[in-house]
Amino acid sequence: MSTYSVPTDERTSAFRWPSFKQFVFKQHSVLPGFGLTLGFTLSYLGLIVLLPLSAMFLRAASLTPARFWEIVTEPRVVASYKLTFGTSLVAALVNSVFGFIVAWCLVRYRFPGRKILDALIDLPFALPTAVSGIALTAIYAKTGWIGQFLYPLGIQSAFSPLGISIALTFIGLPFVVRTLQPAMEELDGETEEAAASLGASRWQTFLRVIVPSLLPPLLTGFAMAFARALGEYGSVVFIAGNQPMKTEITSLLIITKLEQYDYAGATALAVVMLLASFVLLLAINLLQWWTGRGYQRG
Amino acid sequence: MTKSFRSIAILVPLAIIFAGAIFGCSNSTTPTTGVNQAGAKPSKVTLLNVSYDPTREFYVEFNKSFADVWKKQAGQDVTVEQSHGGSGKQARAVIDGLEADVVTLSVGYDLSAIARKAKLMDENWQSKLPHNSAPYTSTIVFLVRKGNPKGIKDWGDLTQAGIEIITANPKTGGGSRWNYLAAWGSVLKRELGDLKKLNDPAAAEEVKAAQAKAREFISQLYKRVTVLDSGARGSTNTFTQRGLGDVLLTWENEAFLAVKDLGPDKYEIVVPSLSILAEPPVAVVTKVAQRKGTLEVAEAYLQHLYSPAGQQLAAKHYYRPAIPDSISDEQRKQFLNVELFTIDDVFGGWDKAQAEHFDDGGVFDLIYQPGN
Fold first, then answer.
1. Confidence (pLDDT) at A298
2. Most buried residue, A99, A166, A173, B75, by most Cβ within 10 Å?
3. What's the whole-model pTM score?
4. The domain that contains B114 carries what CATH number?
């Protein structure tokens, strides 16, 4: 072990990007163990995230570009993208609004049972998604507790895009609440007081002071709920009805292809979903960076 | 901390990953149990039976029965491990390296995939065991609500106005393909009278017209399906727990279970005049069994399915025995008489049926194309 040593110059020249040197300096000043933790991080991420993803791309690469395009633009597949992205967007938007209210209530007010409510938020994280799917279907089907009131009004609450949105809202809620809570707790009360003393109405204080500082975490929560919804399978298959062209999500089509041993076709769809979510997350990150900067300047 | 140590800290875990990736690919497995090189039998042997969902309870009992027989016959203690799940998913697991000694799945197509894709057994696996390698069979029946309020008696009644049908998606549920094929075959039989005409060149025109009728019927039928669950058990739930639909198309054994477990006062079974002989096939995964040295015991295990004891257990779990003579009159009475046709008779085997009807772009997909 001791005979193995790399000359310093050679080692640093292998890592060209400038930020690395900065990190190396930081390591000496405060916390030790940068090399060890970075090594661990790289190998862990490589093993857990990058290796499976590259395997997926490799499998999809066995298709010719023309065939790939043909598979991912089939009418039935396109219908499933529209449904998946549409319902995920609806669910993420609903969660952004109501998740905001829930987080606000939990952070700003003290009331009996608050801790229990707070713990309940995590339930969709912990529950096997199939269980939530079955439970939601039981409630929203024609004969269910809620469904029996909705169906007479002409609202088809299960086996429809609405049902899918409900399931996706359920599984996405914790993301919004849990990203907003710490940010709300850190809100500076003095700024609000200052705004009030300078004659701002409550509404003005909320819109001009509170919302701008909560926008970045809200966007993060939205993005995470959205991304989570895109890939959801377990809870949706039960409530979706799974009718081709109408209520068939992309994940189900991926499973359908696997049942035909069409691995390449299945990964082609997966690649499309992955790229789409990646682009979306990137866009939201840019937006977040932009709003965050705007707030700091102002 | 020295700088060299830091580099090692980065490099070592990466090296481990690459080493893992390389060795992971080179399929190096050691035989675990079974007959060793010298030919002497170890006292214990373990088999893995990879099966589909509804056979769980049956195999629990059957494995005990086989263990007793094998102990007497070969003096070995045999433990059979079970793995259950959707048929297609189970077959993919075996293809991807799950070390199954025997597979007992719901459709022949999944076994052919194991033979073709992973080359783990001969492509002519189906001729290795009697009765098309299907020791027990089932058929497709209708489950309706008590009193049969919509008066559903046979296939033709399914497309009457106002009937809602529950069945699973044949593309995701292996067993649900039997439903579809049963419905298709019923029309051919009605139109042609005699299914032998299918292979008679003189009747080509007539057959063509009948196939068109069948296609029309299937299209009508699936348009009445409001919930297309991804598996057979899911659609049983939709019908029984959610109270949706007027009729559930399902395996006979599944229908018996639903009536037994959920109340004979709520549902009844309607047996159509004609249905398909659903043959869930079994096979030894020869390459795996050879490697593990379990070939002999694996073969005996499947043979035991054809023994009177095996046949009686299958009947107990509502599967129709391949050899009806081995069960009692009492047991035989529970299965109603129904005229059955096989997938080979009508569709020319699984591979052909799969390609024509269920693969992407097949007849089932066309039903849902816009404009159809």
1. 42
2. A99
3. 0.79
4. 3.40.190.10
